[in-house]
Amino acid sequence: MDIRKSIIEEIRIFVAEENEACSMGAVWQEPIVGFADAKNEYIGRLREIVHPDHQMPEEVMADAGTVICYFVPFAEWVAKSNVGGANDGCGSVTNMSSPQWAESYELTNAMMARLNEHLIETIHNMGYEAKTAPEAAVFYRDEVISHWSFRHIAYAAGLGTFGLNNMLITDKGCSGRYNCLVTNLEVEADSPKKEEACLYIKDGTCGACMVKCPAGAISPDGFDRHKCYEQCLKNAAVYTGFGSSYAETTENDAAPTYGSEVCGKCIAGMPCAYREVK
Ligand code: B12
Ligand code: SF4
Ligand code: SF4
């Protein structure tokens, strides 16, 4: 089996095993994996496209060759649980996320940390090196930004295209989470997708995420991360029992929170949440 296929298979098996052991039942679907050439033109422009301080693959590993990027979709029931409002316990329905969405978010981040460790060891045993980007774990709350964008690297690795909801939409939709590893592997690289997955961007139809967003963060003029963050903080104030993925790893901590910073109403129930492109 070639190296690409072995890595895809390792990721698939790992997620399947974690799914079986998961305390919430099966929360994930089969992952999809992309390989970006660390020296490709799009990655070379990340500081111009995303942020002037974006970390570059060669800063993570001097001989970076390939960035592996994977997307793990949530099982459909996870997104469905988040379609309506959540009950506030006093009989009214609010714009809050479902508890299942919040818990799956924390479980997925923890699962991905284990998967990354497993992949680093597997790739080491193949005679190569793999590392996570240190900046991927840091959330600069004053700017509401990270200096390592999974989505932009996933775009370079051919996993999807950006939607009006600001999600990177894959062939399996956008209801799921990404992660990346920098490696010194030299394997055949994927290229960005050419066909737009978002209906609004493709032909001006849909726009459902814009209507659904409780914070008014989505518009054709762009995405307002500050409005979105306010909504995520409202959920974090309620969902304090599942962990807080970024609590320990935050710099410039303007507003520390210790809950699950989630929302996801621009994903749940949307036509781009789950797609099956052959
Ligand atoms: C900081 C952060 C947040 C902040 C700020 C959001 C933001 N978009 O920056 C807050 C807390 C508000 C947040 C909210 C959410 N997040 Co968040 N977040 C991150 C984090 C840690 C960094 C993102 C970042 O700073 N990127 C750099 C900035 C500059 O890039 P950007 O915001 O993506 O903006 C670019 C795109 O818009 C792009 N772009 C290019 N072409 C096009 C075309 C169009 C049409 C558009 C609209 C944009 C676009 O240009 C912009 C500038 O470069 C990442 C994990 C990571 N390390 O990558 C997760 C991540 C982006 N979050 C994720 C998710 C799922 C969410 C939430 C749904 C919360 C939840 N889990 O319930 C919401 C959705 C918000 C939204 N609609 O984007 C996922 C996205 C998965 C996906 N399918 O795309 C990520 C990748 C985490 C993961 N491990 O998968 N998040
Ligand atoms: S809900 Fe519709 S407009 Fe919004 S990102 Fe998905 S396909 Fe595009
Ligand atoms: S996560 Fe919530 S607040 Fe943020 S853009 Fe999506 S629907 Fe709006």
Please summarize what this structure is.
With 278 residues, this protein is α+β, with helices and mostly antiparallel strands.
Query: What is the tally of helical segments?
Result: 10
Helicity, as a percent range: 25-40%
Count of distinct strands:
12
Beta-strand percent range: 5-15%
Distance between the termini: 23 Å
Structural classification: alpha+beta
Order of strands, main sheet, comes to: 1-2-9-5
Number of domains: 1
Q: Provide the succession of SSEs.
A: HEHHHEHEEHEEHEEEHHEEHE
Bound molecules: cobalamin, iron/sulfur cluster
Unreliable stretches (pLDDT < 50, length at least 5) are none
Using only C-alpha atoms, the radius of gyration works out to 18 Å
Can you give the mean pLDDT?
A: 92
Shape: globular
How would you characterize the largest beta sheet? 4 strands, antiparallel
Structure description:
- With 278 residues, the chain is an alpha+beta fold.
- It has one domain (3-251).
- It is 34% helix and 14% strand.
- It has 10 helices and 12 strands.
- It has helices at residues 3-21, 41-44, 46-49, 57-60, 76-80, 99-125, 150-156, 199-203, 208-212, 225-238; strands spanning 32-37, 66-73, 86-87, 93-94, 130-131, 139-140, 161-162, 168-169, 176-183, 218-219, 222-223, 250-251.
- Helix 1 (3-21) packs antiparallel against helix 6 (99-125).
- It is globular and about 50 Å long.
- Cobalamin (B12) binds next to helix 7, strand 9 and helix 10.
- The site of one iron/sulfur cluster has 13 residues, from helix 8 and helix 9.
